[in-house]
Amino acid sequence: MHSSQASPPSQASPPSKPEWGKDEVRTRPLVLALGICLFFVLLSALTPLPESSDAVRALERPSFQAPVWLALLASILYYPLFAALLYRTLTRISPAGARRITVTLLVSALAANSLWNAVLGGAGSPAWGLAGAGFVLAVLTCAFVFMLREERPSAALLAPYLLWVCFDFLWSLELWRLSAG
């Protein structure tokens, strides 16, 4: 006699969860990204602007200048851009080591950019300004290359600002060259 075994009733599989951090706003990373940027907004507000130093005001300026509207746009979008990049890093880069490296690079760029004003304004030295601009450029270039491997949309978000920093570095280099001569 051949008996057929009844197959177990099929169990409905649980609804699939969205991939980690892809489809929903995650509160903790959002608060962390905004908090980091707010800290640097406050730090920047407490540091003197380079133009407030007599030594900086006396420097001969490079002949090439960014249009005022572009400088204003970069200033307005700077902190929202970094908040978005930090949030995307915290929610979309899944290997913990890669996430830590990217966050460290972004926070280093925020810190260097905030302290650049104090260093250039306080020291009145184009050499220090050039060193700060070079450091920001190096850190953001590393972040950009790293994001190209780990999270291309974030690299695309960073690319226009990286171009701005390249311009800023060239401007700082020319300012230093003019002051040395």
Name the features.
single chain; 72% helix; mainly alpha
Report on this model:
The protein is mostly helical and 181 residues long. 72% of the residues lie in helices and 0% in strands. It has helices at residues 27-46, 54-57, 68-92, 96-123, 126-150, 152-180. The chain is elongated, with a radius of gyration of 24 Å. The N and C termini lie far apart (105 Å).
Quick gist of this model?
The chain is mostly helical and 181 residues long. 72% of the residues lie in helices and 0% in strands. α1 packs parallel to α4 and α5 runs antiparallel to α6.
Helix and strand element order: HHHHHH
The biggest sheet amounts to: none
Low-confidence stretches: 10-18
The termini sit apart by 105 Å
Query: How many individual β-strands?
Result: 0
- Amount of helix: over 70%
What is the gyration radius calculated from CA atoms? 24 Å
